[in-house]
## 1
Amino acid sequence: MNERQIIDHIAALTDQKDARLIKGIGDDCAVVEKDGRLVWLLTMDTVIEGVHFDLAFHPPEQLGRKVVSVNVSDIGAMGGRPVFALLSVGMPKTFDPAWFQAFARGLAAGCREYGCLLIGGDTVASPQGFNCTLTVIGEAMAERVIYRSGARPGNTVWVSGALGLAAAGLELLRRQLDDAGDGFGPLLARHLHPTARVELGRRLGESGLVHAMMDLSDGLATDLAHLCKQSGVGARIAAWDLPIPPALVEAARLVGADPEQWAIGGGEDYELLFTAPAEAHDRLLELGRQCGLAITPVGTVVEGEGVILLRRRADGTCEERGIAYQGFDHFRERAGD
Ligand code: ADP
Ligand code: MG
């Protein structure tokens, strides 16, 4: 079973029926009625030592803030704003108090930065390594929430920021190449200190221009496949339009990686992926400018299913390749599957 099959299995065992539940399993957040006008948005994410971060190079203060960023990213992806948080920490009995205090400082600063209040949690000993789960509760105007399921054929596919930066930054840190290039700062920062696009997400929600939205946690290839599946559509992505900065190409050259593969398969960028009708193009660009963030059209929503990457050959013809679900999956390499 891979990650998707595990979640589908759990979803199939629960009927997800309650008059107040607007959206259960399957989107960035669960959506629950609050009053006639507002909804609650609920999301949870876990970080595990050795899976999401390496103690050898992840400063604890930055890790604390990152835990908040990766969670509020899902609130932003629905067009909402974070309000409350609940924290669960598991640590070996041998934990270093100074390390933990720095982690807690970063976490508290992250909560302040995104405007959410820590209101509870749980604290346990962990036999192996540090792990932490944050639940974030947000709110949004009911009619402004953007779901993964709203993409329609003809929509343009957009992404915010640049793609593949976190994957590149992690690889540089793993290989102790973080000092190897002048332009690598943004790559390292995307892994160590990502900023969730909450303001952009909220503005996109308010604009009424966007049909479907999610955040990019597992890479474009997997996350766009999720969005397409929820919407009952397919997508075609133009490789030449992917926002790949020169520093990413330079880092890829240094470690013998493929920058395009980082851009479509690298996880943890926490950028926003959204679709909108073609006529919204100029107004969206203006909205991105107002938020101080580049947003880039990278493809088109089509009838059917799957995600196709188009690439130009040297002779001018186009090559097409299916890339659905080729991003990060926690259980993909499980033995025996
Ligand atoms: P995201 O990357 O946006 O955090 P995930 O891929 O982790 O989303 O999860 C996709 C959906 O599946 C979400 O609605 C999430 O709440 C749900 N989900 C994930 N794991 C579980 C689980 N163990 N039990 C119930 N729901 C889950
Ligand atoms: Mg998400």
Note: The chain is about 35% helix and 25% strand.
## 2
Amino acid sequence: MSAEKSGTDGHKDGQKVIMKVENLSKTYIRGKIPVHALRCACITVRKGEFLAIMGPSGSGKSTLLALIGTLEKATDGKIILDGTDLTSVPEKLLPRVRREKIGFIFQHYNLIPTLSALENVELAMRFSRVPKKDRRDRAKTLLEDLGLGDRLNHKPTELSGGEQQRVSIARALANRPALILADEPTGEVDSKTRDSIVRIFKELSEKGQTILVVTHDPEVAKECSRALQITDGLIKDN
Ligand code: ADP
Ligand code: MG
């Protein structure tokens, strides 16, 4: 991989820095008017952190996630994730870097409706380094660990919202990503289901999985290791 290797091995409190966002900015042009969706964001995330990003609608949360998820290009700044500068990865290599380093969780689950829970998780490993013969076993283990051992062959429409979100968590974990990005992952579920999803995130982070969650819900943020506020594209690390 030609992407730059640098800068994520600093230590503090015994925890490795897994991601460094440096002076990250995104300006959209609407008509002829610039919209500063993100201004000079600096965030340091340590391995195993369960980090919440909170802010009102239009404050830049989705923009930040899209930039870190390499779905959008930054106007300025850097994102160094697990030793790779995401902002300098050539376009052609982005799908692979994204697949290997980042797991995505969406508010609406985004599962493939024609595939079973097992097949949805397996599919995430289709182009990955997991050997073909091991993919089904790994998908099964992940789903079983999330309490879905008796739902392996169910299609998304045959699952509750909470179950669908657990399938999507299993899918996000499939390639052992350095970072999980979740955009309002509990936006569509009742409070009991929300609490169980948050508990899963907490347990994963205690095992060393780094998770960044965008949420409106103070009950979710309360359970995170740290919550950052974003307002008008300005975010302050603490
Ligand atoms: P949030 O997710 O916090 O609601 P967004 O990141 O979606 O906020 O948006 C931040 C700002 O950037 C808003 O003012 C929004 O209108 C603007 N914006 C987002 N995407 C685009 C785009 N593709 N083109 C122009 N403006 C955009
Ligand atoms: Mg948004």
Note: DSSP finds seven helices and eleven strands in the chain.
